[in-house]
């Protein structure tokens, strides 16, 4: 019979594994976002869900269980006012002092934040691979918090897709509550992220989307276009220009990805070359880095501009 398969072993002995998960969960509740490997992230998110559920209960047994699990130790003495006054060194107001306990945040702030949620307090984002052993990295965040990564990334996606309305209507209108002009997949993500948000947080989301849309429009004008040297046809365009080439514009580098441009122009996409997966319905992908305005032009016009 298969016993003891309730969680991943993580290549550690039981005592080491328990201490590792306690440390990860405590760091996640404190900083609200941590970066670790994918197997550790899945186990830490699972345990963090249980600890937050204890915080929502608010009973004395739940407080005892949370206090016994969370780190750092909660029985460490705090300095009194008399000892601080007698000490010769004064505390720097800018110095970061770690809290002695996470119970007030767990049973007050987090319990009120997730009061209307029945679960799903964490979110895992895959983040490439670790250098050395090529282990998959992941970022674990607490949802609906000030450091929610998906809230920021989705706001940029909405700002980029709202610029498509600019070419159709000629003016960037106020983003409506129905999120007109966005893709259906983006609409579903927006509804999921803003489901438990307040009106102020929804307005903040719209403000972030408009700021990123303005940034995409101003980026090309700020750099003055892309600097392309007047050399032969066989010479790579990303080569550093010489004395006879114009000095205005952004220097084009191999594999560079500009804001709002597809990931096919990254270094990995260029390295794959002909082996890269071609999107459905397209036979050839132009992997030349462009600004947002140049990337939205027709293929023939975009090739002439670059």
UniProtKB/TrEMBL annotation:
Example of a GO MF term: structural constituent of ribosome
Annotated spans, Disordered: 68-90
Keywords: Ribonucleoprotein, Ribosomal protein
Biased composition (Low complexity): 77-90
Gene Ontology cellular component list: mitochondrial large ribosomal subunit
Keyword Ribosomal protein part of the UniProt annotation: yes
Protein's GO biological process: translation
Top-level taxonomic group: Eukaryota
Family per similarity comment: Belongs to the bacterial ribosomal protein bL17 family.
NCBIfam families linked to this entry: L17
Protein name: Ribosomal protein L17
């Amino acid at each position: 019979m298969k016993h003891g398969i309730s969680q991943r072993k993580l290549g550690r002995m039981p005592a080491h594994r328990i201490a590792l998960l306690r440390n990860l969960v405590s760091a996640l509740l404190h900083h609200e976002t941590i970066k670790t490997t994918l197997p550790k992230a899945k186990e830490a998110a699972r345990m963090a869900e249980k600890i937050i559920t204890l915080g929502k209960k608010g009973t004395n047994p739940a407080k005892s269980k949370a206090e016994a699990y969370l780190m750092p130790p909660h029985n460490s003495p705090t300095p009194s006012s008399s000892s601080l006054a007698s000490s010769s060194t004064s505390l720097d107001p800018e110095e970061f002092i770690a809290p002695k306990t996470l119970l007030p945040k767990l049973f007050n702030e987090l319990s009120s934040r997730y009061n209307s949620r029945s679960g799903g307090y964490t979110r895992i984002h895959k983040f490439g691979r670790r250098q050395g052993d090529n282990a998959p990295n992941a970022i674990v965040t607490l949802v609906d918090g000030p450091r929610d990564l998906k809230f920021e990334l989705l706001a940029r996606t909405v700002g980029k897709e709202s610029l498509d309305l600019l070419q159709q209507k000629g003016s960037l209108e106020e983003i409506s509550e129905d999120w007109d002009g966005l893709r259906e997949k983006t609409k579903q993500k927006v509804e999921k992220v803003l489901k438990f948000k307040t009106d102020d947080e929804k307005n903040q989301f719209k403000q972030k989307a408009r700021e990123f849309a303005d940034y995409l429009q101003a980026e090309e004008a700020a750099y003055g276009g892309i600097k392309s040297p007047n050399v032969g046809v066989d010479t790579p365009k990303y080569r550093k220009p010489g004395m006879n080439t114009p000095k205005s514009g952004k220097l084009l580098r191999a594999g560079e990805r500009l804001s709002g441009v597809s990931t096919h122009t990254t270094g990995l996409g260029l390295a794959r070359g002909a082996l890269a997966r071609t999107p459905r319905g397209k036979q050839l992908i132009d992997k030349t880095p462009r600004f947002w305005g140049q990337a939205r032009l027709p293929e023939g016009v975009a090739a002439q501009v670059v």
